[in-house]
Amino acid sequence: MKALVAREYTTLDGVVVTDVPQPAAGPGEVLVKVEAAALNPLDLALITGAMKGVFPVEHPLVVGMDASGTVAEVGEGVTAYTPGDPVVAFTGQAGAVAEYTVVAVGPHLAKRPAGLAAPRAAAIPESGMTATCLLRAVGLAAGESVLVVGATGGIGLYAVQLAASLGAKVIATATPDDADYVRGLGAQGTVDYKAGDVAEQTLRQVPDGVDVVVDLINRGDALSTTARALRDGGRLVSPLFGPQDFGRGVTGVYIGSFTAEPGDLEDLAARAADGRLRVEMGATYPFADARQAVSDFAGKHIRGKVVITVP
Ligand SMILES: NC(=O)c1ccc[n+]([C@@H]2O[C@H](COP(=O)([O-])OP(=O)(O)OC[C@H]3O[C@@H](n4cnc5c(N)ncnc54)[C@H](OP(=O)(O)O)[C@@H]3O)[C@@H](O)[C@H]2O)c1
């Protein structure tokens, strides 16, 4: 089968669409005929080896971890899926940008509802489930105010919408070009991260400070810059890492690798299918241009998700 492959740790333009052996579904797994895949920042680090101390990979690496398509075969013991079922999946660290991929039955695999085409579905798993886990970890509640830093990217796309749907007042980072876009996702206010201090701009809108910061950009001590936007006793949550305690009773929560609960992916897919969740595909590429998709994802400002369609 054809796949987007890194044969060794390489620069981003070193990935190629080439032939690799087709995987087979083992016990408890399904083989998916991929129709679309999406990219995430971790894909870039896995290609280059930037995080090989934490996430070493086996080569050849089939790039990508978000896929959508139809079930081609089911492995031993699988009863919940049958060949032909439309599905959406998080494949782990690799395997998605390919004609076929294998996924274990569990919270990272869901049936794709009618009305959710494969490209939109592929744009959901990693970012959507991470957003879900972040809001759950920080216990965001109706009526709270939340600043989302990194709102224009993949996780931000879902974090803004899910926070707004919980009944929170959302302030989102966006340049003026993207301000209407994030308001369309449900943000009530915006702060321009390229035009000054994000915390100061936020405090001008919420003088006592927000209840929650979802910071998708900063890590380590740099998180203290956005933690200043919090009220005393506020909570910061991040998919990266940083201090537990910022003073003033402000605490940090870090999810590490996200842990989806059963039903999370189904819920996101259902919301996308019936229009409650917008899926922003800022750029879509045919499989033959997958290398370009990787370069553009790394180098260009693209709203929401980058999707690759697979014939
Ligand atoms: N722990 C986990 O399980 C987990 C899961 C998924 C992701 N992550 C991590 O979470 C982070 C975010 O992921 P993502 O998929 O949302 O990334 P993404 O799609 O690349 O989005 C990042 C967004 O933030 C914007 N941005 C850049 N600098 C900013 C700043 N200083 N202030 C505000 N916004 C800024 C970017 O704009 P430009 O395009 O202009 O740069 C882009 O729109 C990554 O580091 C990723 O590795 C962790």
TrEMBL record:
Coiled coil: none annotated. It comes from the Bacteria. Residues 10-308 form the Enoyl reductase (ER) domain. Pfam families: ADH_N, ADH_zinc_N_2. GO terms for molecular function: oxidoreductase activity. InterPro entries: ADH-like_N, Chloroplast_QOR, ER, GroES-like_sf, NAD(P)-bd_dom_sf. PANTHER family: ZINC-TYPE ALCOHOL DEHYDROGENASE-LIKE PROTEIN C16A3.02C. This is NADP-dependent oxidoreductase. The lineage of its organism: Bacteria, Bacillati, Actinomycetota, Actinomycetes, Kitasatosporales.
